[in-house]
Each structure stands twice: as structure tokens, then as C-alpha cells.
Amino acid sequence: MVKPLVRGIIKTSVGLTLEVRRAAIEAGDEIQDLTREVAAEKLASSARTRRVKADGEVTTQGATAG
Q: Among the residues of 1-66, which ranges form H helices?
């Protein structure tokens, strides 16, 4: 009588553990996606505000740095 109860508890625990792992993996994937998006936006923004001329001179927002 005790063995089926313990077996059911263990089976439920394993199932919950697998669900928690799956959820954690999905959350990690979402965080990585957001990180990639923010990094791409930051790089694009940086590229728009800082241009390098052919001779190596750096300009920022249209002004010549020197």
C-alpha cells in the first residue's frame, strides 16, 4: 500500500522537475534573444553616431573629431 503512494510521489516529482527545467531553458532562450536584440540595436546606434572616414579620421554626428 505504501509502495504505490511513494511511486506516485516520485513520478510526480520527476514530472515537475522536467517541467521546471523546460521552463528554465525557455526563459534562458528568451533572455539570450533579448540580449542579442539589444546588442544589435546598440551597435546600429553606435554606427550611426560614429563614422570613420577613409583616411581613418573619426566623425561623430557630422562633426570632425580631432
A: 2-49
